[in-house]
Amino acid sequence: MFEWFFTQTTNSWDETVYVPTTPGYILLGAVLVLLVILYLCFLKKEEKRLSTLQITFCALSMALAMVLSFVKFFSLPFGGSITLLSMLFICLPGYWYGVRVGITAGVAYGLLQFVIEPVFYSLPQMLIDYPLAFGALGLCGVCHRLRHGLPIGYLVGIFGRFVFAVLSGVVFFGSYAPEGMPVLLYSIVYNGSYIGLEGAITLILLLLPPVQKGMEAVKKMAHRTV
Length: 226
Prior knowledge:
two-stranded antiparallel ribbon; 226 residues; Arp2/3 complex 21 kDa subunit ARPC3
């Protein structure tokens, strides 16, 4: 069954990897649609009037994140790159609407990223590096009720992604650690180099008063009712 959805090939390092077949792409699309349906089904009745607005704002934020993810200042050889604030726009749905919406949007974004770069070593590795790692950015929503809570929420979100990235590095990419270097330390340094640097740059911007005012204004728009 697995071979019907994903086919085996080799990458530039002559390693065995998998890529989706046509049925595999259809399956990924179906999963994305299912996520939206499940989210709508679990909405409380009083929240359903906001569902269209939520989906619109989340879709716009995910689209911006996707575009900005292609603006890379540098990329590391085994995955990971510093982008133009793309993680921020994945965190925003959680900041606007809370953890549940944030994680749902993050998981959907992770699957979209996988569709664009559909190469993976194993199914557990794919799940950790894409839907789980990006879904963790939705933890930004723990601070969505706080005034000016975006900077703190952003730190929570990127730390969640960092945890999954380190886990993936230890479990699946430990063989790339330099000789004599602990695998955990290697994974922390490797993943911290791009997540930490992009996070620091973004955090500096978020602490600027004009940016804070702008983010608050956008949040009010995201909760506007008709």
